[in-house]
Specification:
The structure holds 2 protein chains of 2 kinds. Chain A is α+β, with helices and mostly antiparallel strands. Chain A contains 7 helices and 10 strands. In chain A, a hairpin with a 2-residue loop joins strand 1 and strand 2. The two termini of chain A are about 25 Å apart. Helices cover about 45% and strands about 10% of the residues of chain B. In chain B, helix 8 runs parallel beside helix 12, helix 9 runs antiparallel to helix 10 and helix 11 packs across helix 12. Classes of the chains: A alpha+beta, B alpha/beta. Bound molecules: flavin mononucleotide, iron/sulfur cluster (3 copies) and FE2/S2 (inorganic) cluster.
């Protein structure tokens, strides 16, 4: 057995990982889908949404930030975990303003798609109705803060991939918001519509103008196949 | 408008060596001088440090004691906690409103005063207490307020407030000393003893004492030190966690004000044992009034050779300590958030692994220990491990400093052996009629009379020391609501379950208190509480639902009594409904090392 190979089980299925991989990366490669929202394969993980939380050796931990280790026992697809994940998705729905029916991202939105996958019908929690402004200062991009789920993907992409640091957070707790690197709004930053930061947003917070509705409703990413099915398709059928 | 900010910012950046990790000191310098960190200042810091303005805004906007917009020249912060409220804070607040002509949360039109609420300021034994700029005033009554405001208006500002009200200074809070707090404490006996041994022998001694961290989580100190010593790094760091943010605790304040050398000895011993040259004491912003005294103690230690080069004549052992002042954020007591804060960032906890012992301050191996833990270390070196294990229980050796406040005759700090029952503690402090005791602060456990026989020890009721006692006349649900407010205010916001969940829990509790909740609402609250406990990233979120879940279990009748009149409570069995959540609650420490 070679040293670099790490073996561990996920819901009883044995998978392999290489040193340095996180649980979610190893599972992605093995065709096991762990629900996630803030994680993006091209970005350093941040562990913010907690949707990917699994029970790892008996303790809960976020799969996107947990290094794969020899012999670990991971529970992923269990009812209690999915119930908690659904509860988190619900929290994100009520924290912002999410009128899916007339949202540009509908069908292409990871939050919505996870809601469907996890069986969230209608939120029971009270909506918090935050009053967040729309930033329309950029010629090519709209920043609809109402939709922001504070996943920090744009922050990480802007810093790592674009080398720009256009985005950051401000405030703390329930008052935490996305902030941009200019007093006058996104239009005064170095942001460009082709930036990686613009394309990683899982919801319709960063919206490219004149680009929406190219794919008609009903034919969009998650209209066609549920979120996660691309990963699950990689898995060899079990014998 | 913001004249001079640009220049001042540049000077400060230069003074701190163009070091991005000292951003906290840079912005605090500006806050002290101008009362806020202006846009101009942010721009200047950004260009001088070659970072983006958004990074500075991210950091500054996180801390309660840092402002982006000008507020009053004098800041009056009233501590709002269940204990301050039962001691009459509402009347004191009204008196301030009347004297200043503004409501809490406002700034006077002449820009002279801002009056606001703040979380616990570490004075639970002497409430109602206020923080006026950096001066602490305690045991206030409404009649004091006109004098305070007059003195402040006189231009004597905060420096002059103390003399106006000498009785309102911070009192010593030591009621009952024990082995830890008896005997000499500035003779460096423990330090001398440690320096006579090999560093690894020091760690062996600490391990033999079975000392567990006094900050709440109870991780074995000897093991932490061993892991830290073994970790490879260019430098090793020793950090003393003096954030003391848990409402109701003030024992670290006592140690820092009356036994500082004992604490510093402990840090120097750690430095010796770990092969470290640098110690940092992270002092909560609320304790800024202790800063000058602590600096003086450090200066004296340098003179005496107990700090600096070749400590106590030990060639090759150089160690110094600097003090980092925090800026108002409870979460910065969490060790990894503390490190982020020390590095000049927002206090958001880190993911683990890696643990701080492996990659801590500035990415180097770091041992973070509580103030009391360091004091214990010094005593263990002085008297030996066997002396230490002679008190306490099997899994919790030694004594524990308990901060007790609320409805009791003798609030203050008590040094008691681990294993003492809640009842015994209540007898000591004079609280025969206690109806509700919150052990371990809001993140700890609400304990009802039927459980007063339980023991204070890691194997039963584990605690950092905060103990709030409430008599039969108190409204338990109101107290729980104040704890819920605390967590909403103090959640760092990083992760969804805690950021949103704490707010939803507060909303639910308000509904219960207003008599508008149905049984289903209570079940929903319980479900949210469970999710927050299980899914949150750090100990804050993992324990934020404790007061709610704990009182649902210990005082179900209080919830029942509040149910909407038309609610069907036949077959109501809260205990059963809560089975799952109760299993997971408790101050479950985030996995620390190993
Ligand atoms: C939200 C939160 C707040 C904390 N606040 C403090 C604190 O104020 N002081 C402290 O010593 N430990 C605090 N801790 C525990 C620290 O993370 C850490 O465990 C401790 O400082 C380690 O020192 P010890 O081993 O000596 O206890 C806190 C933990 C959490 C989760
Ligand atoms: S961003 Fe997603 S979840 Fe939000 S409204 Fe649009 S489609 Fe719905
Ligand atoms: S804008 Fe989009 S990518 Fe950025 S934090 Fe908000 S939801 Fe995430
Ligand atoms: S649990 Fe709360 S305090 Fe801890 S990381 Fe999450 S939001 Fe921040
Ligand atoms: S995907 Fe792991 S925490 Fe968000």
């Amino acid at each position: 057995m070679d040293d670099a190979t790490i073996r561990f089980t996920v819901d009883g299925i044995e998978i392999e990982a290489v040193a340095g991989q996180t649980v979610i990366e190893a599972c992605d490669a093995a065709g096991i889908y762990i629900p996630r929202l803030c994680h993006h394969p091209d970005l350093a993980p941040a562990g913010q949404c907690r949707v990917c939380t699994c029970t790892i050796n008996g303790r809960n931990g976020a799969a996107c930030v947990t290094p794969a280790m020899q012999g670990m026992v991971v529970e992923n697809e269990t009812k209690p975990l999915n119930d908690d994940r659904r509860a988190i998705i619900e929290m994100l729905f009520v924290e912002g303003n999410h009128p899916c029916v007339y949202c540009v991202a509908s069908g292409d939105c990871e939050l919505q798609a996870l809601g469907y996958r996890l069986g969230l019908d209608a939120p029971k929690q009270p909506y918090l109705w935050p009053g967040r402004p729309l930033d329309t200062t950029h010629p090519d991009i709209i920043l609809d803060h109402d939709r922001c789920i504070l996943c920090s993907r744009c922050i990480r992409a802007s810093r790592m991939e674009d080398g720009k640091t256009v985005f950051g957070f401000e405030g703390r707790g329930i008052a935490m918001r996305l902030n941009v690197d200019a007093q006058g709004g996104l239009g005064e930053t170095q942001m460009a519509a082709i930036d990686r930061a613009a394309s990683v947003c899982p919801v319709a917070c960063i919206v490219i103008k004149r680009d929406s509705y190219k794919v008609p409703n009903g034919k969009r990413r998650f209209d066609v196949s549920p979120i996660g099915s691309d990963i699950e398709a990689k898995r060899m059928p079990r014998t | 408008m913001t004249e001079g900010h640009d220049e001042a910012a540049r000077q400060l950046v230069a003074q701190f060596g163009f070091d991005r990790s000292r951003l906290m000191d840079i912005v605090q310098g500006l806050q002290r001088r101008f009362g806020h960190v202006s846009d101009d200042a942010v721009r200047s810091i950004a260009s001088a440090l070659r970072i983006h303005a958004v990074e500075i805004e991210d950091m500054v906007s996180f801390y309660a004691f840092l402002d982006r917009k000008p507020r009053g020249r004098c800041r009056i912060r009233l501590s709002r906690t269940p204990v301050s409220m039962i001691k009459g804070m509402a009347a004191v607040a009204s008196a301030f409103e009347a004297a200043l002509g503004i409501s809490v949360g406002e700034t006077s039109s002449d820009g002279a005063f801002t009056l606001e609420w703040t979380s616990d300021i570490g004075m639970a034994d002497q409430e109602p207490a206020a923080l006026i700029d950096t001066t602490v005033l305690t045991a206030l009554v409404p009649d004091d307020v006109p004098h305070i405001v007059a003195a402040l208006r006189d231009g004597r500002r905060s420096a002059g407030v103390g003399p106006v009200l000498p009785k309102a200074g911070v009192r010593s809070s030591l009621v009952q000393p024990g082995p830890l707090l008896s005997g000499g404490h500035d003779n460096a006996a423990g330090l001398q003893a440690a320096l006579c041994r090999e560093p690894v022998k020091v760690i062996e001694q600490i391990t033999a004492s079975r000392l567990r961290g006094r900050g709440g989580a109870g991780f074995p100190t000897g093991l932490k030190w061993r892991l830290c010593r073994q970790a490879v790094g260019e430098e090793h760091y020793v950090v003393c966690n003096a954030d003391e943010g848990e409402p109701g605790t003030f024992k670290d304040r006592l140690l820092l004000s009356e036994f500082p050398d004992l604490v510093f000895d402990g840090m120097v011993i750690a430095g010796y044992a770990l092969g470290s040259r640098h110690g940092v004491l992270y002092l909560r912003g609320e304790y800024a009034y202790l800063l000058d005294d602590l600096q003086a103690v450090l200066a004296k230690r340098r003179q005496l050779g107990r700090l600096g080069v070749a400590i106590c004549g030990t060639i090759g052992f150089d160690f110094d300590i600097r003090i980092q002042l925090g800026a108002g954020a409870y979460i910065c007591g969490e060790e990894s958030a503390l490190l982020e804060s020390l590095e000049g960032k927002r206090g958001a906890p880190r993911d683990r692994p890696p643990f701080p012992t492996e990659r801590g301050y500035l990415g180097q191996p770091t041992a973070i220990d509580n103030v009391e833990t360091f004091a214990c270390v010094a005593r263990i070196m002085e008297h030996g491990a066997a002396w230490f294990t002679a008190s306490g229980t099997a899994e919790s050796t030694g004594t524990k400093l308990m901060s007790v406040a609320g409805d009791c005759k003798r609030p203050g700090v008590y040094e008691v052996p681990f294993g003492i029952t809640v009842n015994e503690l209540l007898d000591l402090v004079g609280a025969a009629d206690a109806e509700f005791v919150q052990v371990g602060g809001p993140s700890g456990q609400p304990v009802a009379p039927k459980d007063f026989g339980r023991r204070i020890a890691y194997e039963d009721l584990s605690t950092g020391g905060s103990t709030m006692v409430f008599g039969p006349q108190r409204d338990v649900l109101e107290i729980v609501l104040q704890f819920a407010d605390f967590f909403v205010d103090e959640s760092c916001g990083w992760c969804t379950p805690c950021r949103v969940g704490t707010t939803l829990l507060r909303t639910g509790l308000r509904k219960v208190i207003a008599g508008q909740a149905s049984l289903e609402d209570i079940a929903t609250m319980e479900a949210v509480a469970g999710t927050v406990t299980r899914m949150s990233r750090c100990g804050l979120g993992q324990s934020a639902p404790n007061p709610i879940l704990g009182t649902m279990r210990s005082f179900p009748h209080l919830y029942e009594a509040k149910l909407r009149a038309d609610a069907d409570i036949s077959g109501f069995d809260l205990d059963k409904a809560l089975g799952e959540a109760i299993k997971v609650q408790g101050r479950q420490p985030v996995p620390e090392e190993g």
